[in-house]
Amino acid sequence: MDEPSTALKFLFSDHQRRFQDNIHVYPVISRRSGGLSAGINMNPDKGCNFDCIYCQVDRTPKAMADIQKIHQKVDPDRVIDELSHLIGLLEKNQFFSIPPFDKTPLPQRRLTDISFSGDGEPTMVPEFPEVLEKVLSFFKSRSHEITIRIITNGTGLFKKSVRKKVLDLFAQEDTPETERLPWSIWFKIDAADPQSFDFLDRSGMNFSSYWKNVEETLMEVPVTIQTMVMDYISESRSFHPEGEWKHNMREAMEKLLAGGAKIGQWDLYSVARMPPSPEVRPVSYERLLELSKSFQKSIPVPMHIFP
Ligand code: SF4
Q: Ligand 1: which residues within 6 Å by Cβ?
């Protein structure tokens, strides 16, 4: 991906997860999808089983003060009402006159996807399969050419029952083949060794068990891998991707692919929105490019970079 323009950089960095009176559905201009993405925030309670060092979700006591209930139940009908409101604005050509989306350049003025993403891990929410089912059914009779996407740290899919349900729903067997919606799963893998995993993702999970589950899941579920590439610089610790991290990632990806993992693409991205932790720093376009060129010497799947 080329470096984005100033207007796009502004929109890419503005990922407010609030839109009008909605609590779940929010529009963003997405650098990775190249257009308008309607996000479905399954975690307005900011619940996540990871605590990534670069996460931009503000979970400081002050930011959590207005969060009413932790682990609140998601009402699937409310999600569909909110989605219907947003899609209605788009269909009536009213959406792109609402600030800040009125600054969207013409090529990005199109709905590209519905993404399960937000302030936490969507696949860990018990209502997630039901919401996915209702979203697929909502778009069944509509003519939007969109992709349904799940942006995940993967851990909900570690459960066999959840990944079977997701794959069954995406198969859309009750829909004529020509009308089935494309889908994709963006599966986060930030590290492939215990030290980097503990440092970057801070999940509290044992790395060996995490990695065993990753291997098992990727044998069944086709994914695009998403990897955060960042620097961390503080007085007590510094972390750069070019050392051990790179070596271990390469080796792990080679093994996954050789073992039959269904990895269709690997994306490297860096920090676009500054996280609460100031020690986390983005890496430049040039360094991302260098890393991807180096990985591509032995990794046969397409790679894309998103500075
Ligand atoms: S998995 Fe996503 S939401 Fe959860 S802590 Fe990491 S970056 Fe934040």
A: 48, 50-52, 55, 57, 120-121, 153
Q: What is the pTM of this model?
A: 0.91
The number of residues in the chain equals 307
Q: Give tens-digit pLDDT for 88-97.
A: 999 999 999 9
Q: Which atom of ligand 1 is nearest to the CA of 188?
A: 1
| CA dist., res. 27 & res. 287, Å (int) | 30
H or E element at residue 25: strand 25-30
Q: Give the three-state DSSP class for 212.
A: helix
Angle at 117 between CA 79 and CA 151, to 5 degrees: 130
Q: How far is the centre of ligand 1, averaged over its atoms, from the C-alpha of 52 (Å)?
A: 5
Give the pLDDT score at 45.
87
Q: Locate the ligand 1 atom nearest the alpha carbon of residue 43 and give its number.
A: 3
Per-residue pLDDT of 64-119, as tens digits, reads 877 765 557 899 999 999 999 999 999 999 999 999 999 999 999 999 999 998 89
CB distance 150 to 73 below 8 Å? no
Spatial CA neighbour of 269 closest among 12, 5, 10, 6: 12
pLDDT at 16 over 80: no
Q: What CA–CA distances, in Å, run from 57 to 54, 121, 140, 279? A: 9, 12, 32, 16
Tell me the CA–centroid distance for residue 46 and ligand 1, in Å: 9
Q: Omega of the bond prior to 129 within 30 degrees of 0, cis?
A: no
Q: Across the strands, what pairs with 225?
A: 187, 266
